[in-house]
Amino acid sequence: MGVEGADRSLDQREVRAAFAEQLSWPDDRLLDWASRVVSVPNAGPADSFALHAPLELMARAALLPLVRAEHRDHARERIAWLAAEYQGTDLLGADPGSTGDRLPEDGTTSVDDLLTELLQALEAADLPAVDSCTRVLAAALTADALRRALGPVVAPSLAAAAHGSIALNLLGRTPAVRRSVLRGALREIGRQAPATVATAGLAAGDRPLVDALLAAPMLEVTGPERIMPMVRAGAPAAAELLADVSSDPVQATRALSRVAAWSMLQDDPEHAPYGWTHTLTIPQAVMSIGLPPRDAVAIAGSQVVGFRASMGTRPLDPAAVVEPDHDTVQALATGASLHFDAHLVKYTLACFDAAAADPEMAGLYLAAASNLARWWSSQPDDGFFDRPSLDLARQP
After folding, report:
1. How far, in Å, CA of 9 to CA of 85, rounded?
2. How many other CB atoms sit within 10 Å of the CB of residue 167?
């Protein structure tokens, strides 16, 4: 299986030389600069690196306070590396005739007007209008207000690899990261607007969600781990399994996270770096952005059924003993922050969040994060540091 992102070009010495000024700045200024860079969408369809870059930056920013003191400079260099590599992609040029990122001062256009215009632009795949509206709304609204306004449209979308929910979930977590980082995800959703999760009639009962998720069929779907076809492949099973499940958001969040972590630890390790990471990060985000509980459970549950149906190779055992893990939160955060892979960064943060939301099973989530770190430690590093980054992070 190919490893995404391992062929990125710059190394530590080149980043230090080219971005010495930015690396001399305090964290907030460095993150503001990096977020301005990754806020500019790609002109064409975003590849995996371009799609993940804004999410990766937000996750790296959130992990930075947890990084070991002796490796904070290394983690900051990875942030500069991310921005530098993103600058080398096919970025959208300046908007001809753009009036900037503020609402008109004459009061002719309101926030509600812009939201209506954005929804219409998404439906019509009018990408310039999507971007223009997103820029102004990101400047005008708080992160919480953006989640409330955009969540019902973004969460069911399978466009942008269903990563729009992750963008909304991480938004505002580190205030120095600009809210305009939403631009790329919204543009990709506009590119494939009709692709959504079917939720009608789901989560209308009181059956425990975990029972339904564990009963997902194994369809032996072959091919790349693409979000949209996997969720669609599992849709008939989701319609059957999720009709009578409870929409209790606390229990559902724990069920979804536990099934994702069990999948990482118990199922096919071939899917560890991408498939099982998405099984946690995307549904967790859907449950975290303030949707009505029934909608959230229907969307997130359908996603997990699709992932389990497409990638699962064996039944999961909730009673399986989780071996105590010797990697601390600090070690896991440091290792992820020094590594090149966006999925490792996002997943490590998601495991910490899951442990906070489900403290009874905190050991399960830390074990899952450790499992993914070990998987990556067996893969070639990208050569950014003189020593492999995961090994470097674990030095005493």
Report:
1. 8
2. 27
For residue 110, pLDDT beyond 90: no
- CB atoms near residue 374 (< 10 Å): 14
Give per-residue pLDDT as tens, 309-324.
Answer: 999 999 999 999 898 7
Name the H helices within the chain: 12-18, 20-24, 27-38, 48-63, 72-87, 111-124, 127-140, 143-154, 164-170, 183-191, 209-214, 227-233, 235-241, 249-266, 275-286, 293-311, 329-338, 342-357, 362-377, 389-393
CB 111 within 8 A of CB 140: yes
Q: What is the DSSP string of 76-131?
A: HHHHHHHHHHHHTS-B--PPTT---SS--TTSSS-HHHHHHHHHHHHHHT-HHHHH
Q: How far, in Å, CA of 280 to CA of 160, rounded?
A: 17
- Separation CA 278–CA 146 (nearest Å): 23
Q: What is the C-alpha separation between 8 and 381, in angstroms, rounded?
A: 11
* Average pLDDT value for residue range 293-314: 97
248, with CB counted inside 10 A (0-12, 13-18, 19+), is middle
Among 92-106, 304-318, 348-362, the range scoring the smallest mean pLDDT is: 92-106
The phi and psi torsions of 207 (rounded to 5 degrees) equal -70, 140
Burial class of residue 197 in the structure, from the number of CB atoms within 10 Å of its CB (0-12 exposed, 13-18 middle, 19+ buried): buried
